[in-house]
Amino acid sequence: MNQALPKLTVKDYASDQEVRWCPGCGDYAILKTIQKLMPTFEQPKENQVFISGIGCSSRFPYYMNTFGFHTIHGRAPAVATGVKLANPELDVWVITGDGDGFSIGGNHMLHVLRRNVDLQILLFNNEIYGLTKGQYSPTSPPGTRSPSSPTGSIDLPLAPCEVAIGSGGTFIARTIDTQAKHLAAVVTRGHEHRGTSFIEILQNCPIYNDGIFNQVTDKKIAADFKVELVHGEPIVFGKERERGIRLNHDSLKLEVVEATSDDVLIHNETNKVLATLLATMKGPDLPVAVGVIYHEEKASYVDDSQQQLISIRKAKGSMTELLHSGHTWEVE
Amino acid sequence: MELVEENLDEHHLDEKEVVDVVVRFAGDSGDGMQLTGNNFTEATALYGNDLSTFPDFPAEIRAPVGATFGVSAFQIYFGANDVTTAGDALDVLVVMNPAALITNVDNLVDGGLLIVDSGAFTAKNLTKAKYQVNPLEDGSLDKFRVLEIDITKQVLAAVAEFNLGHKTGVRSKNMWTLGLVLWLFDRDRAGTIESLKTKFASKPVIASANIAALNAGHAYGETAELPAGIHVYKVPKAKVSPGTYRNITGTNALAWGLVAGSELANIEMLFASYPITPASNLLHELVRHRDFGINTFQAEDEIAAVCAAIGASFAGSLGVTSSAGPGIALKSEGIALACATELPLLVVNTQRGGPSTGLPTKTEQSDLNMALYGRHGDTPMPVIASSTPTDCFDAAIEAVRLATKYMTPVMLLSDGYLANAAEPWKIPDLSEFEPFPVQHYTKAEDFKPSIRNEDTLARVWAKPGTAGLEHRIGGIERSFDTGDISYDPANHQKMTDLRQAKIAGIANDIPLQEVCLGHKTGKLAVVGWGSTFGAIHQAVKRARAEGLDVSHIQVRYLSPLPRNLGQLLKSFDSILVPEMNTGQFVRLIRSEYLIDAEALNKVAGQPFKIGEILAAIHAKIATSGSNS
User: CB–CB of A85 and B312 under 8 A?
Assistant: First the structure.
């Protein structure tokens, strides 16, 4: 941009709509952090577009004073792909949840990741269906008791970051709703990435799944149950950073060791095998990884599409030539 | 009304000069019948006949050799007068094997010419076609003029010098046959030779072999002693208005109409679709025209295709998606989102035989109800239907105009027959089309996404990237006043009424319904929509030539209907509605206008024959005569 942009603040990003999430919902914290973060990108507000599907998280665009589109269940990645293809200049954000993104919309999630469309996906994972009143979701642990599973769910859950890596995703990260600083830092990294940035945000649903992430959010115990990944740094955690993660070379599984052990892994966010192992870490044996899990530079679908168009459109089409192409004949 | 067929009393091949002829090439799906037909079509168009074609092929890409379900055929009707169908009965049938004979011979007129590759009538092939005895030997073909040639042997001799081996050499059978048929109708080979050179540019030996086969087939006609009654037939040139002409299929005309529509609207277009027969060719054609303001996107599924198109429209381009029946069903939720958010969207439905997978390569008009009603909620949208291959061009432009002017999804109906059929087209001069440039909204002052045009009721199109117009839209009901979420009961009533009124109002912006043949009042009107045009037109023309008081009305605008349609229909004593479904349009006009319209239905995967509609006209006139 050659033109100096007016300095924007958090207020510029709050729409005039009354926020209608339940009191105490983790979505409030995410909204506030994103509204604060947006001005730091120093981009024209009119170029920012938030697109969502259906669910509690998908109300998000209504509260952002940018362009926004609340679409249909599970299809936000497809709508967003169309938006980005039509205008690659736009800064496109997809807001989705565990049900919207990985149940009804699982197919589109897979394909937007594999195509590496240049946009940010914020997946609010609360491991439950909120808006339909509390049924288990594809990320709920087995045994979840809910209105549709009163005797405990028997579905085996998926790990969103693992699926995202498996789908060919090029930027995979995990963060936590109420940890504003970490959330902002991870989202900023994702925004810098050219391609699809997939960010799983562990989000508390105080009504239907309260405290499901307590281990990683409760300040008293969190240090023992989560590990913050930093590229190039040892993967260590615990109150005194006394424990670390290493690879067991026989089982090819990760395990916890003393931080002083000389085979503690160094995080390398470009290592896909390591990323896959880290993405699936969970209790009780392993801490939950947060931070940038995987990062890879790869051609983005929209860039490639634009390049083809630029090359093809060097000579602009002529309708008259098109209509007269091939065999024609004159009748007098 | 019961479907019966009248034989049109025509024996064309008795004279040296004939007014019109129907030729059908039939063989295995790997025999190259479509290529043969297309080349013959080109030569016929260059010769100056009017024509209409009907490619008729199986869903199987390469069915087992010799199987009846693997027979692929290409039919062409050409002549000196206006030709609007691919013809009822065959004057000439070319069969490359017994399966092609058994599946097509019933359509050959008595005295018709049957060209047979006798080399393919082996015991094995006869068994596969379920012939107990060889029909070439049992006298069952005596009523036809049979020209038996061992084409396989002839071809191998013709291409011997290229040392291609048996398997490759035999592949030129279709070109040998084409050469013979080109001779039969005095057509030029130059165009075919050129296209073979282009097609096999990287394999010059194959090109040469095919050309040699083509020439050998032609020479065979010239030199061989043919049975009596088989000779060169002259078909006089058609009398058509001056201009530059080309052949075009419905698919290409529709694709080019979309390109022209985006030029006239001065707007970029994103064509997003998922492959499905018989709609995929539209994507194949449009991807070749990205030098215009067109981009294409092969989505992961039908739903993603419609959603990407909607996203493009939200971003300020025109989103277009395309499919056939089952795929359109999947898009239904997305179409309703476009209706709710009042974004332009063009949905092309190339209808095929249903339900479910049905008959993927065959034609039908059974998605009309889905087009009109197949969505949740009260979700009106304009529906228009193209009636001929060339009409697909104009219909596509009109669909673009309506979608962008009224900020609405529009359904454009084509079908498997229109998509693949070809006819000559007087190339239009695009400068004669009225441009309808899109105006995106730009005024930031007092902006609301709910601002609308008082005449059209269309909402503003405020695209991302425009400073000061930041706003949110979505599927939740929107306030009439602000565009924000509203659960207010009175507002929902108002918005529902608005959506109905906006689409209903389009009736004031479309042409009045005209009568395309005959008087504006009278005994009987045959009313059609879509691809039944050609057969109805010929049937009505013949009935009128017999002195019957019959008119032909073809309806393009199916929702909203032309505002004079009810009045027009009521000025006829009776109405007959031929449709390739169980009576979807006839029920619409019966309920809309309370008139006693009668249905004539055919759901056989094949277009109506002229004789079928003519028989219904005769029956209808006879009954109404006895009533009066």
Answer: yes
Q: Is A15 on the interface with B (CB under 8 A)?
A: yes
- In this predicted model, what pLDDT tens digit does every residue of B585-597 receive, in sequence order? 999 999 999 999 9
Task: Give the residues of chain B that fall short of pLDDT 50.
Answer: 626-628
- Using CA of residue B86, residue B92, residue B94, residue B95, what is the dihedral sign? positive
> In chain B, positions 440-469, which contact chain A (CB-CB < 8 Å)?
463-469
A contact residues 287-316, partner B, Cβ 8 Å cutoff: 305, 308-309, 312-313, 315-316
DSSP state at residue A102: I
Distance CA B309, CA B63 (A): 36
Contacts of A316 in chain B (CB under 8 A): 291-292
Q: Of A300, A134, A292, A303, give the one whose Cα is nearest residue A209.
A: A134
Largest CA-CA distance found in chain A, in angstroms, rounded? 94
CB contact under 8 A, B465 and A46: yes
Which of A86, A89, A319 lies closest to B263 in CB terms?
A319
CA dist., res. B80 & res. B20, Å (int)? 6
Residue B521's alpha-carbon distances to A318, B418, B535, B600, in angstroms, are: 45, 30, 21, 21
Contact B543, B618 (CB under 8 A): yes
Give the relative orientation of helices B250-264 and B391-406 as an angle to the nearest 10 degrees: 40
Nearest to B406 by CA among B313, B514, B545, B512: B313
A107 near B CB under 8 A: yes
Q: Which of B67, B79, B66, B154 is nearest to B115 (CA)?
A: B154
Contacts of B224 (CB under 8 A, 6+ apart): none
pTM: 0.94
In sequence order, what are the residues at sequence separation of 6 or more whose Cβ sits closer than 8 angstroms to the Cβ of residue B326?
B276, B354, B356, B357, B358
Kindly provide the ipTM of the predicted complex, given to two decimals. 0.97
Tell me which residue of B351, B300, B361 sits closest to B329, measured CA to CA: B351
Is the CB of residue A272 less than 8 Å from the CB of residue A263? Answer: no
* B177/B174 Cα distance (integer angstroms): 5
* Tokens found for residue A113: 């990741």
B73 near A CB under 8 A: no
Chain centre distance of CA B505: 29
Judge: A82–B270 Cβ closer than 8 Å, yes or no: yes
